[in-house]
Amino acid sequence: MHDVFQYAFWRYKLEVIVPRYYATVLPPLAFIILLAILLIAYKFKTDNMFNWFKERAIKKSLTLLNNNLKDVLHSDKNIMFNIKILSEKALASYGTAEGKAQLEKILSLSNNHMESIAKALNNIKDLKVSTIHNNLIDAIESAINEVNIPDYIEIIKIYHDTEVYGNFDMYHMKQALINLITNSLDAIYSKNVEKGIIRITVNSSIEWIYLSIRDNGCGIPRKYIKKIFNPYFSTKSKQNNWGIGLSYVFRVITAHYGHMRIKSKKDEYTNVEILLPRSKSFGGQYGED
Fold first, then answer.
1. pLDDT at 286
2. pTM, whole model, 2 decimals?
């Protein structure tokens, strides 16, 4: 037993040899790995914070846009109400059958328009701005379905992707598209062509969605191109148009951090081009450049 304790392993000093690269390579490598982890975590947090602030800015812009639309629609509703009252008074005192028929038509149009305005005001009142992942193709198709397309006008759709997602408010985006399609219809009607064509093109890259709406209508004179986004400016008759359509569209696109430009040649064509930020984390494959 004495020999066991005398020659046991703990009585001997064991020599431990540590390779030199442990001291020279591992500490810097560990530091680099730690730094990379911190940078990735910081970038992830920064991106989330940026997206949060960006979404808040979009919602703030669209809320302001809602309030402006309410003011415009309330003014329009007041005008139609006055027309309705005057039509009723004139209808009650008018003598001829032809005049009566015309006044009845005016009254009917006023009633229908007031119902449409009331519906629009209710939609805006109940609207909750929602900048969620939406498919732009769905917004385009929905807008086309809500516009009355004459038989002599053809809609040509060129979609390079069937699903192109972006963070945008579906209600406002659809209304903007309805405005653009309606403008194309008006331009074709004004030119009085036998065959009208509206070409809608959608393409995408990793970061952007490209949308083009081109028509073969009357075009816009060059001197007006820089003014068409101004509120209440219009190349149409002031008696029939208040000129708020393109201004509204421009504000919707820019509220979503997008870009918009118009190319046009009088008596030949108008091409509206729009760029919108694309969602990178939802839906479909990225488009080709």
1. 42
2. 0.60
DSSP structure string for 84-147: HHHHHHHHHH--SHHHHHHHHHHHHHHHHHHHHHHHHHHHHHH-----EEEEHHHHHHHHHHTS
From first CA to last CA, the distance across the chain in angstroms is 85
- Higher-pLDDT residue of 257 and 7 is 257
Buried (b) or exposed (e) across 270-289, using 16+ Cβ within 10 A?
bbbebbbbbbeeeeeeebee
Work out the average pLDDT over 207-220: 94
- CATH 3.40.50.720: does it fit domain 132-277? no
Q: What is the DSSP letter of 236?
A: S
What are the domain boundaries of the chain?
A: 19-129, 132-277
CATH fold for the domain made of 19-129: Helix Hairpins (1.10.287)
